[in-house]
Fold this protein.
Amino acid sequence: VASMVWLLYFLYPSINTSLFKVFRCTAPIDGKRYLHSDLSIECYAGGHRTVVYFAAVLLLFYNAFLVRLV
């Protein structure tokens, strides 16, 4: 159990950073916003919208529930 707690807190910053990168978009370019880490992906359109919903659920679960349980 102690090793799981250590692993959870050790990975906490990098998991959160990765999940928050999904929401980081550029300023509008010709009326469209693009994902900062991959400029070929339009923000909040197509598959990115699904990833945003998934990341939001994971962030909520990971930050609000999982860490509180430990």
User: Anything to note?
Assistant: Helices lie at 2-20, 47-69.
